[in-house]
Amino acid sequence: MFRWCQDIVLRVSSEEYPVSVFDISLSRRRFSQVVSGIAGLGVAGPGLAGRYARAAGLSALSSVTLRVASFRGMESCLLPALGLDDFPYRVVFSEFSSGNLIAQAISADAVDVGGWSEIPLVFIAAAQARVAVVATTDGPTTDQALMVPAGSSARSVGDLRGKRVGYIRSTTSHYFLIRMLDQAGMSFSDIVPVALGPSQGLTAMQAGSLDAWATYGYVIQRLQAEGSARILESAADILSGHYFIGANPLHLEDDLFRRAVADYIHRVGRAYEILSADKQRWAKIVSPVITVPEPEVLSYLQNQNRPYHPRAWTGSDIEGVEKVARVFVRERLIPGDTDVRKVFSDALSPLLRT
Q1: Span 303-319, pLDDT tens digits
Q2: Where is the SsuA/THI5-like domain (predicted)?
Q3: Which helix (H) or strand (E) covers residue 121, if one does?
């Protein structure tokens, strides 16, 4: 089963988008050129989720196709591995390396559903992108950190003054690097900031071209497993742990589309409920996909500070995003009149509360 799971995970394009902050001009054709591996998952056998779908009267959704963005080792792998891919609609997964690229893909009408943190959401609002936030996912913040080479003499953020520090623009790493520098009485002007995509940052870190790298995800465990880098400072207490699920607003008027997206979100929630209770199984599923030894993956999962849980968004979620937005306004990265509330849609809220 795990080998099959590994085979269906989509290949990620190594190309990074040359955008200054958030580019809404990318066309659907452009995304079809960049996202290199697209695969469909049709209706499978009658598993638990299939019984849920029939009970919810979702058999009418066979005409719907959802183009879903996923991160490596996340939903595109987990749902099939757990038998939760017996969708009553067609799902086409594409794999991305950061949430800001997923948001751009939705705005370009290349993807229908995907997730990101508070930070891409702020830039979505600033760019007035064609994206609707339809749900919140509570999740861990223990997979976000500022890394330094294993042999680095740096023992605090203050030691990075004048050093080359990589980060991933318009993502959590961008935000928590600003916050870490602020806490150390520093700013971007005190370092040599290097904006890199995830794959470029990993390569630069492994090659010794960076003195530090603000990053996220399983790449942290990968670098630690290689012995090439260590955590200088964790962002666990800086980030809120609120992530968001966005949908393509071009289709939200369609009742069948809304029901399909709500069903998909319910399946994701069920997957994380199952795996949170069996983290050894979780590690076994994703380890071969992300090429990190199973013990390191298991250790990371066991140290998560909160589980993943998708839900309808609330007013407090918006307030959290507004707090993040104020940081980027202060840094003059977004306009002062950016209104994040306009991005939120309650189109799915009734379906997610049932």
Answers
A1: 999 999 999 999 999 99
A2: 101-227
A3: helix 118-127
Clarify whether residues 117 and 250 are in a common domain: yes
Average of per-residue pLDDT values in the chain: 86
Pair (222, 265) in one structural domain: no
Q: Which residues of 45-76 are buried (b: 16+ CB within 10 A; e: fewer)?
A: eeeebbebbeebebeebeebebbbbbbbbbbb
Sheet strand arrangement including 65-71: 38-41, 90-96, 65-71, 113-117, 242-247, 132-138, 309-311
263 neighbors 53 (Cβ within 8 angstroms): yes
Domain limits at 273? 2-139+240-352
* First-to-final CA distance of the chain: 32
Taking alpha carbons only, the member of 346, 347, 345 closest to residue 258 is 347
Token reading at 36: 């290199």
Which residue's structure tokens are 């580019």?
A: 23
Q: Judge if 230 and 247 occupy the same domain.
A: no
What local confidence, expressed as pLDDT, does residue 59 receive? Answer: 73
Quote the CA–CA distance of 234 and 200 in Å, as a whole number: 21
